[in-house]
TrEMBL record:
Residues 275-432 form the MmgE/PrpD C-terminal domain. It holds the Pfam family MmgE_PrpD_C. This is 2-methylcitrate dehydratase. The lineage of its organism: Bacteria, Pseudomonadati, Pseudomonadota, Alphaproteobacteria, Hyphomonadales. GO terms for molecular function: lyase activity. Belongs to the PrpD family.
Length: 456
C-alpha cells in the first residue's frame, strides 16, 4: 500500500525501449559501414585525447584528482590509480580540450565521442573486454544519445543547454552498462541515475568549462553504471516521468515523441571534425578554401565576405571580437580570416593568442559579415566581393564530405597521426592507428590501449 503523499511512476516506455535497444547491439550483427564508423569514432577520439593531454585543463584535472601531472600514456589502459569515473573525467576532458572531437548530429549535435569513449575505455580496459565488445558498446552509446537527443525540442539548445553534457551523459551510461552486461532493469536504472546528473550550459563556450561538460558527462555516466551494479536504486522511467528529464529539459510534447528501432543506425549521421574550430564553421571553411584555391589572386583584393548559414550555426559561433585563442574557435569572423590567409585550420596551432592579436587577421575579421538563411546547418554559401567590383561565390554541403568514406578515412588518418606523433612518438602513433583499425580481432582491449611512454 502506498504511503500518504506517494505516487506511482508511469509504466516504463521510453526509457525501457531505449535501454532494450542499447542492449540489443552485438558486434557480429552490426552492418559493415556502422562497424567501420565505430572504429573511426574510437580512433578519432583517442587521437583528440592524446593531443589534449598537454592542455592546461587536463593538467588541472590531473593535479586535483590524481595529484600529479598527466602524460598522454596516462589517459587509458589502466595507467592511473584511482576511481574509474575519475579516469573517465580526465580522458573526456582531454578529448574535448581543443574542440576537435566529432559531433553526433541527431543527438542535438552533442560531442558524443568524448562522453561515450571516455566512459567505455576505462571500464573496458578494467574488465578486459574484446575489441568487438568495445565497438558494440560505442554503437550502443551513440544510438542512445541520438534517440534521447531526438526526444528534445530544438529549443533545448537555444535555451542554453549544452547537449554534450545533457545528452552525452546517457550515451556514456549506456556504453558502460553494455560493457557490464546489464539486463534491462539495470540499464533503465543507469539511465535514470544519469538523468539526474545531466547538466551543462552553453555560457561555458570559450572557456575550460566547456570541455569540463564532456568530462562530467563521461564520469557521471560511468559512475551511474558502477553504482547501479552495486545495487544503487534510481527511477526506471526517468525520461518520461512527471518531473523527469523530458519534462524539465524541454522535451517534445508526448504526442511527438518517437523512438526509432535499433535497426536504424544514427551513428551514420556522425560528423567528424577536420578543422580545430567550432563545427558550425566547418562548411564555411571548406567553401572558403575551395574558393581561394579556384581564384588564387583573391587574397589581396577582398573588400567584403558574406557567409550565409542558418541561425543555429550563427548563434553557436557568435563571438564577433574574440579575446582569446579559445574564443577564436567560436567566431565565424576569426575562423574565416584564418582560412582567407591560408592558415592551416586543421591544426589547433592556428588558433593562437598571437593570431587574435594579428593586425591582418583583425582587418579581415571586420570584413566578414554573417547572414541568417533558411538553409540547414550542413550547408553554407560564401560570397567574396573584391575592391575592383568582382563577386565570387561558393556553396558547400558538408554531407557530401560526410558520405565520402574514402575521404573521411584518409582525413582521420592524417588527423590522428598529427594529433599523436608529438606526444607518443611517430612509430607508436602509427602502431596505435593500425591496432585500433584492427580492433575487431583484439581479444583484450587493454593490450591495445595500454600506451607506453616515449621513454619506455
Amino acid at each position: 500500500m502506498l504511503k500518504e503523499g506517494a505516487r506511482t511512476l508511469p509504466e516504463p516506455q521510453l526509457t525501457q525501449t531505449i535501454a532494450d535497444a542499447a542492449l540489443s547491439y552485438s558486434h557480429r550483427n552490426l552492418p559493415e559501414d556502422v562497424e567501420h564508423l565505430a572504429r573511426l569514432v574510437i580512433l578519432d577520439n583517442l587521437g583528440c585525447a592524446i593531443r589534449g593531454a598537454r592542455e592546461p585543463l587536463t593538467q588541472f584535472i590531473g593535479e586535483e584528482v590524481f595529484g600529479r601531472q598527466i602524460e598522454a600514456h596516462d589517459l587509458v589502459g589502466g595507467q592511473l590509480e584511482g576511481p574509474l569515473h575519475s579516469q573517465a573525467m580526465l580522458y573526456a576532458g582531454a578529448a574535448h580540450a581543443i574542440d576537435f572531437d566529432d559531433t553526433l548530429i541527431p543527438a542535438r549535435s552533442a560531442h558524443a565521442g568524448s562522453a561515450v569513449v571516455g566512459a567505455a575505455l576505462p571500464i573496458g580496459c578494467k574488465l578486459g573486454v574484446s575489441g568487438g565488445e568495445l565497438i558494440a558498446a560505442v554503437v550502443a552509446g551513440y544510438e542512445t544519445a541520438a534517440r534521447i537527443g531526438a526526444l528534445l525540442h530544438p529549443d533545448h539548445y537555444l535555451l542554453g543547454f549544452h547537449p554534450t553534457a545533457t545528452v552525452g551523459v546517457f550515451g556514456a551510461a549506456a556504453a558502460a552498462g553494455k560493457l557490464m552486461k546489464f539486463d534491462t532493469a539495470k540499464m533503465c536504472a543507469t539511465l535514470g541515475l544519469a538523468a539526474t546528473q545531466a547538466c551543462g550550459l552553453k555560457c561555458t563556450f570559450g572557456t575550460m568549462a566547456k570541455p569540463y561538460n564532456a568530462a562530467h558527462a563521461a564520469s557521471a555516466g560511468l559512475l551511474a553504471a558502477r553504482l547501479v551494479a552495486r545495487g544503487f536504486t534510481a527511477p526506471h522511467a526517468a525520461l518520461e516521468a512527471e518531473n523527469g528529464y523530458l519534462c524539465m529539459f524541454l522535451g517534445l510534447p508526448e504526442a511527438e515523441r518517437k523512438i526509432e528501432g535499433p535497426e536504424v543506425h544514427r551513428i551514420r549521421d556522425n560528423a567528424f571534425k577536420f578543422h580545430a574550430a567550432c563545427h558550425a564553421t566547418h562548411p564555411m571553411i571548406e567553401a572558403l578554401r575551395a574558393l581561394m584555391a579556384e581564384h588564387t589572386d583573391l587574397a589581396g583584393r577582398i573588400d567584403r565576405v558574406d557567409v550565409s548559414t542558418n541561425s543555429l550555426c550563427l548563434k553557436t559561433a557568435s563571438i564577433g571580437e574574440p579575446k582569446t585563442a579559445l574564443e577564436g574557435k567560436f567566431s565565424f569572423s576569426h575562423v574565416a580570416a584564418l582560412a582567407l590567409v591560408g592558415c592551416d585550420t586543421t591544426s589547433d596551432a592556428a588558433y593562437s593568442d598571437a593570431a587574435i592579436r594579428d593586425k591582418t587577421l583583425a582587418g579581415l575579421r571586420a570584413k566578414v559579415h554573417t547572414n541568417d538563411s533558411e538553409m540547414d546547418h550542413f550547408r553554407t554559401t560564401v560570397t567574396i566581393s573584391t575592391c575592383d567590383g568582382g563577386r565570387y561565390e561558393m556553396n558547400f554541403d558538408f554531407r557530401a564530405l560526410m558520405n565520402d568514406r574514402e575521404a573521411v578515412s584518409s582525413r582521420i588518418e592524417t588527423k590522428f597521426i598529427t594529433n599523436t606523433a608529438n606526444a607518443i612518438g611517430n612509430a607508436q602513433a602509427h602502431r596505435l592507428y593500425a591496432d585500433v583499425l584492427a580492433l575487431a580481432a583484439c581479444p583484450n582491449i587493454a593490450d591495445v590501449f595500454c600506451i607506453p611512454g616515449q621513454n619506455s
